Amino acid sequence: MTRKTFAIVGASLAGAHAAFQLRKDGFDGEILLIGDEAHLPYDRPPLSKAFLLGKAGEDALLLRQESDYSDAAITPVLSTRIASIDRSARSLETTNGRSISFDKLLICTGARARDLPFAPEAQANIHTLRSLDDAARVRAELLPGRRIVVIGFGFIGAEVAAAAQELGCAVTLVEASEAPMQRVLGSEGASRYCDLHASRGIDIRLSTSVLQIREAPDGGKLVVLSDGSELACDAVVYGIGSTPNCEFAQASGIEIANGIAVNTFCETSVEGIYAAGDVAARPTAYASGLVRLESWQNAYRQAVAAARSMLGHREAYDDIPWFWSDQYESKMQLAGLPGTHDQIVWHDQGEDGFSGTAFYFTQRRLTAVLGLNRPRDVRFGMEVVKAGGAVTPDDVRSEGFNIQKYMKR
């Protein structure tokens, strides 16, 4: 019998976990793990945290050592970009002209940083942060006393700003919206985040967009803002969202919906082709329509589910979304999907003015929990959301409220 080949495009966290799950579940065919970077799969969350701060090197980020892939008979195919899928021939065509045959295919290509809406007049010292190479370039800029402008007050921008400040840089944080991450955090949570960064000396510019980035006479950069001001700096880092890496899949006729559309079994619209991780848009009981999630937890667990689906184990995947962000000594954790909520109730405000827990309700049903330095509340709140959200806004406001009491209702 001919030995089967399972190809995984995307040498990412999702791709690596899927490959090893295939072996764990007994697949004895060939496994190709194809990635466009030169690195073996690595952990991305530390890139904007411990790696920038010099607390973790490249080796510490690797998910597995090279010997682990050899021992599991998994073949990494690095520095290789896929140009197209030949569905009839069941083959992948690379940008350097190579053809790779497969029996089943899993796409874990993730997402890339969204480009600035304009072309900077000067490209040097202007960075985004998505890959290990990106992070190495950003880290080289974060020297004490340097002036850093961060564009975008999302999680990546906030983490980069925090790391830069801790390393002794003078940081300006520019956000086009009137408040950071307001759809997720609400006005109260956004205010707390602004206060957290302002208390560290970050210069925050809200409701302000960047029109252009020019060369400055001193060799640095001039960031031109919509309010007419200009920011002189040594380097710019931007994080203004992401774009799923699914163009080659779309060109091959696979259904796209802000990512590669999959069902609860991680199957795409084409038989034998699957997708998982940041590139996949999936149905979930926690939101309407298809949702593309960018989180470590989803990339790992959906990849495991996809591997099992490839082997014929049809187990529906719909874990509750979970995210986290570390900034300074503070930790944000979020369980569920805010966005459709009609009410946010805060509980347990800490003396630091930042810590506390936000409970998100949709028609009086708990749908998400946000914890600022409150991991216990998020852990228990996640279980309540999964069980149907049997807690009300009035419960949260009541004296002596404890979310743990509602776990088994």
From TrEMBL:
Keyword Flavoprotein: yes
Top-rank lineage group of the source organism: Bacteria
Record-level GO cellular component terms: cytoplasm
Residue intervals of the FAD/NAD(P)-binding domain: 6-303
Pfam family, one: Reductase_C
Keywords: FAD, Flavoprotein, Oxidoreductase
One Gene Ontology molecular-function label: oxidoreductase activity, acting on NAD(P)H
Annotated ranges, domain Reductase C-terminal: 322-405
Cofactor annotation: FAD
InterPro entries (alphabetical): FAD-oxidoreductase/Apoptosis, FAD/NAD-bd_sf, FAD/NAD-binding_dom, FAD/NAD-linked_Rdtase_dimer_sf, Reductase_C
PANTHER family per the UniProt record, alphabetical: APOPTOSIS-INDUCING FACTOR 1, RIESKE DOMAIN-CONTAINING PROTEIN-RELATED
Protein name in the entry: FAD-dependent oxidoreductase
Organism name: Rhizorhabdus wittichii
